[in-house]
From TrEMBL:
GO MF annotation list: nitrate transmembrane transporter activity
A single Gene Ontology CC term: membrane
Family: Belongs to the major facilitator superfamily. Nitrate/nitrite porter (TC 2.A.1.8) family.
This protein's name: MFS transporter
SUPFAM superfamilies the UniProt entry points to: MFS general substrate transporter
InterPro entries referenced in this protein's UniProt entry, alphabetically: MFS, MFS_dom, MFS_trans_sf, NO3_transporter
Domain named Major facilitator superfamily (MFS) profile: residues: 21-425
Main location: membrane
BP terms from Gene Ontology: nitrate assimilation
Membrane topology: Multi-pass membrane protein
Native source organism of the sequence: Billgrantia kenyensis
Amino acid sequence: MMTVEGGSQAGVQVDYRSLVVVLLSPLAFALVFASWTIFAVLGVELKQVLHFGEVQFALLLAMPMLTGALAAMPMAALARRAGGRRVMIGSLLLICPFLWAIAYSDAYLHFLLAGAGLGLGAGSLAAGLVYVASLCPRRHAGLALGLYGAGMLGAGLTYFLLPLISQAYGWPMAPKLYLLPVLLVALLLWVFAEDAPRKVSLSAEALDDLEPSPEYVRVCRRWLPPPAVCRLALYYSFFYGAFVALALWLPGYLAVQYQLSLKLAALWALAFTLPGGVGQIVGGALADRRDFRDLRWWVSACVMVCLFLLSYPDFTMQIHGVHGDLSLHFSMPLYGFTALLAVMGLAMGIGKGSLMCLLYREHGDDMVRSGGLALALGGLFAAVLPLMFVFGNEWIGIRTAGFMFLYAALAVCMLAMLWDSARAQAGTRHQRD
């Protein structure tokens, strides 16, 4: 039997239902994420067929992220009321008609609307996060949430299968073949999984009954997360949003930058997504044993060094020396580029896994608002990044401008972390005095 204890120290006895959730929820996550990355591979081919430009391609990549970000918190709240299993199943079924519609679309607007519909699958991500957090054993919460977040490996499924399917049967067959595993996982969740029992704890609604307050105060308390949650969600949004945006953008970038075929470019992009999924599990397991606050500086510094090196465009420098002119030429080789991507993907995965565990540890009684806000902010950041990558190409004229933008965004995030750390230390000294 499953037992649930109230309060922030809630624990769950491991039984078959917890194991079913831990196994099936990442599969649902992977399929939703794989459906989002369809355009990362097919979009390169569709650009040639439909003759749309780089900005339109970026909007196509960003649309699932945008609608997904808008749907994250409402779907998380619905999961608390109706049950995570029901919302996950409903979200998986909801994206099926849009997958089918992609196969029969013949205009850019049709693909854009289908991408917006696929973004509603974020309900499965948010509901799955609340679902896993409510059933996982607390002492292994980081590992369980890391395994769930490793569903981003679904991008690797798209990278590997879609070029083969498109080459063998044509691109319209690719989204159709996604329908079978999506329906199968929805069926398995319906048959084997069960909704978690509600915890008995003093929630925001219960506090409203105990403490009379004006209506607007009750509304703010109910819907607005506390500042500590907002700061953690902001940190998470960089790692999540940057990882998602790069997973969408890399196949097209590699194909153009290194003159690769779409199939080879997608396979090289696996060097980023696979370490990211592994890092998510490692980060969650590490966070079960130590606080992310000790780890965040190393992770952020590693990502910053990688972004700094990736930001360098190809260039030639001529130096007027004493004995004549010296020419210096730099061009990032493909092997060096993918090695940096692998290190950065691993570090981003560790950051995501450990941060989500920290959110659970400190705000586990309110994962609807904390986890939902983290996914929403990350989705918004991921939706902005493809446009920033395109604007860097078109306006600045440098293909690596996207990495420069990520470098600047991480620098701002690290300054916010530094300010937060200094403020916490000042508060500690004030309490001692």
